Sequence to fold (147 residues):
Amino acid sequence: MRILVLNGPNLNLLGRREPEIYGLQTLADIEVLIRNRAEEHGIEVDFLQSNHEGVLVDAIQEHRDWDGFIINAGALTHTSLAIADAISSVGVPAVEVHLSNVHAREAFRHHSYLSPVVWGQVVGFGYRGYLAALDLLYDRLSREALG
Ligand code: CA2
Fold:
């Protein structure tokens, strides 16, 4: 079971600014927590953070034979039809994660181009959302493997 964790623009700044919104953990801290949880499940994980839309689209296409994606596309969530099309075209189950509760913030954060093409969203639980997304994908993929 192979799961790719994708993070979009500015998420490389986590832990350095706006901790009241995004938490104290750096992206590297979060990746360690995800990797540890993945090991418990026997899942292979890989990570990609990019500030560039096309790099994220390329990664989605290149991992089309992987089993699941966890994606926090950052602000591209609210603008990127290209990332939505990429997820939709590869047909890999994806969970959309947001650290903050986007629905309690500015109106422009309420709409996600990804929401129609992902399996589901985990929103507003900080870094724990990534762990929940991993558990949910593991549960789904394990059940699918049983047939
Ligand atoms: O809540 C989330 O996870 C977001 O995806 C974060 C994005 C924001 O545009 C989305 O609406 C919701 C922003 C990521 C910026 O990350 C920063 C981290 C530290 C300091 C400044 C920005």
In short: Residues 128-146 form the longest helix (19 residues). Residues 10-11, 13-14, 16-18, 22, 72, 74-75, 77, 98-100, 102, 109 surround CA2 (CB under 6 Å).
